[in-house]
Amino acid sequence: MSTAVVHRSGLRFAAGIYRVRVFGATAGLVCTTPIMLSDRAVTFLLMTFAAALLAWPHLAYVIARRSMHPVNAERRHLFIDSMFAGVIVALLNFRLVPSTIVLLSVAMNSIAVGGMRPMLFCCIANALGVLVGIGLFGSHITNANEPYSTLVMLPLMVLYPLLIARFAHMASERLAEKTRQLKVLSELDALTGLLNRTTFIARLDRLLRACDGETTNVGVIFVDLDNFKTINDSLGHKAGDRVLTRLSGRLMQISEQGGLICRYGGDEFVAAVQVASINDLSIIAARIIRDMSRDVSIDGTRLKLGASVGISVFPEHSSDAASLISRADAAMYRAKHRGKGTTTFYDEHMEHASAIKYRIARRLRAAIQKDLKVHYQPQVDMVSGRLIGVEALARWYDTELGHVPPGLFIPIAEEMGLIGELGMAVMRIACADVARWRAIYDTSVKMSINVSVLQLRRPEFLDDVCELIAQFKIEPSQLELEVTESALLDNVGEARSTFERLAQLGVRVAVDDFGTGYSNLSYLHALRIDRIKIDQSFIRELFTTTTGQSIVSAVIAMANAMTLDIVAEGVETWAQARWLVSHGCVTGQGYRFSHPLAPEEFERWMIANPAGLSLLVTECSSHS
Ligand code: C2E
Ligand code: CA
Ligand code: CA
Q1: Per-residue pLDDT tens digits for 345-400
Q2: CATH number for the domain that contains residue 303
Q3: Looking at the domain assignment, is residue 191 inside a domain?
Q4: Are residue 473 and residue 557 in the same domain, yes or no?
Q5: How many domains, in total, are found in the chain?
Q6: Torsion of CA 365, 370, 372, 373, to 10 degrees
Q7: Mean pLDDT, range 558-563, rounded to an integer
């Protein structure tokens, strides 16, 4: 049942009380009218009270309707009702019959929200009202010996407990049930019916205090759905909500088995279970992943989700609920990074790493449009020394973090969804520089730009590339996109159509870090590749391992056979350069020729080497 449903039934309750109150006020008025008419001394006061008595039900009803908890509001009103009765009784100088009638008419109002405790409070309020009344009007009991008084009192004394107390009891039970429902609801997540975050933390705290940590452990299991965002984005929030409700139904069994489970926020859930051994936690986590990976069918569409799970353990990782949760969260991030659908246990290096990561991501987001720089590393013909092209490499200097290497911020940008924006920013700067060099130096520099596979997946990617080409009037074949081999291998299917469009446009594609993918090379056929870049690790090991040279010569032979261009990366010595040239790889990139250079440095480098690296040619031949 939702909060709204209980609130609505609370309002119906208030409406019922309103009717009883109106009835009570009317009855009170009818009974006191003869006194008003007969006793001039009290007429004015009684009329004032009568007006208040008439106004009060309406006022109380308005207040109750506006209140978040109408039932509670009515309980407070009950107190005022009783005060009222006390004052009126005092005003009437305790005339037995009218006094009893007034008290009873108010009691009729009260019983609707009554119960033992509220009744007790109302008696106190009654007494207070009487005292206030005596203070205002003085006290004397009149007509104490009215002959019919005992006759009236006796049946009332019998009937009251029989009839009214029974009603009061029933009403108070309903009230107690309503209050309980409201309390339960305030502890639950409105959408899924699982515990909400606040209640979960409080209960986990209680569980930890009760647990000795020796014979039993408490595992905190952080579950994050994989691919939920895609479903939410493509099918809309309503469908997303239904998916969440379905999946949380599957998580419910954790609480059925005595554990705690809450919706922590968005598509995150946290469970806490008491276990005898850590191994039990792995079993539970595996079951959760299995349950979350079962298809969900929404309006006939079968959806495939999954979950990544991180686990922290009490007392090993912390004895405090909040930090156990944040550690399980850190472990979950690691699990996601390792590959979705996996489980990872927390270890203390993670927290540090994830704190740094969030900080970097936060600052990077702000830096992309203003602080991001691009440096250029020349690729040269190692025989003639001619400049073949440059590779654009992102550079970021942050005032707080200092120089952050791309090897650190690029994976974070990929993980945090910033890579699309970052990649386009780099491409824009690089294209602008190509256009600038053409205008100033009348030279067309070939530009290689690193592209993450996540960028290729974006539907707007090709349009963005076309737009840059048009804006900066760049010859498409001047542009080369480098995609790492390992990323390509996982995405051959997806990449195919994008690569075909790029080929149609005339934009070149290179496989970066070639040789690190440990795979069959069929993708080279499947995708339209123009060039491969031999990974720098092979060049580094050229003379240090027995297999180094055979691997590189095999790669060169293969590239030649497939008429693919080839470039060697990370060339640091003349010996490496000479070996590569003599084995058929003429293009090289590496510190031997130049480090990556800031644009103005690169321009100076170009001017200083108008005919290419003449020095290089001499070096290459003199050492051979
Ligand atoms: P990468 O694409 O393999 O880039 C080559 C890296 O090797 C660069 O590191 C470069 O400075 C370094 N390097 C060049 N010559 C030598 C050498 O002779 N010896 C050694 N030891 N290293 C050499 P950097 O700039 O730190 O970039 C690291 C990686 O970050 C790049 O590897 C690339 O994967 C990624 N990256 C850089 N900029 C971007 C970008 O704009 N977009 C994307 N998606 N990735 C980028
Ligand atoms: Ca590269
Ligand atoms: Ca590389």
Answers
A1: 998 777 677 778 888 998 999 999 899 999 999 999 999 888 999 999 999 999 98
A2: 3.30.70.270
A3: no
A4: yes
A5: 3
A6: 180
A7: 91
483 CA → ligand 2 middle, Å? 7
Please work out whether the CB of residue 591 comes within 6 Å of at least one atom of ligand 1: yes
Element (H, E) at 291: helix 278-293
Ligand 2 centroid distance, CA of 398 (Å): 23
CA-proximal residue: ligand 1, atom 20 (nearest): 570
In the predicted structure, residue 147 carries a pLDDT above the cut 60: no
Encode pLDDT of 467-521 as tens digits. Answer: 999 999 999 999 999 998 877 766 677 778 889 999 999 999 999 988 876 556 7
Ligand 3 centre distance from Cα of residue 420 (Å): 20
Q: Inter-axis angle of helices 348-367 and 406-415, to 10 degrees?
A: 90
Domain that holds residue 86: 3-185
Same domain, yes or no, for 161 and 207? no
**Side chain identity at residue 195, one-letter code:** L
For residue 99, what are the contacts with CB-CB under 8 A and spacing of at least 6? 89, 92
Question: Are residues 382 and 244 part of one domain?
Answer: no
| Whether the CB of 421 sits within 6 Å of ligand 1 | no
Is 475 in the same domain as 540?
A: yes
Given 293, 317, 347, which residue is the final one in a domain?
Answer: 347
Structure-block tokens of residue 379: 């690729």
Give domain status of residue 277, yes or no: yes
pLDDT number for residue 13: 72
**Any idea which ligand is nearest the CA of 540?**
1
Cα(200)–Cα(220) distance, integer angstroms: 11
Can the peptide bond before residue 315 be classed as cis, meaning omega within 30 degrees of 0? yes
Residue 190 resides in a domain: no
Shared domain check, 414 and 327: no
* Range in 14-23, 135-144, 368-377, 487-496 the model is least confident about: 135-144
What is the domain-level CATH number for residue 474? 3.20.20.450
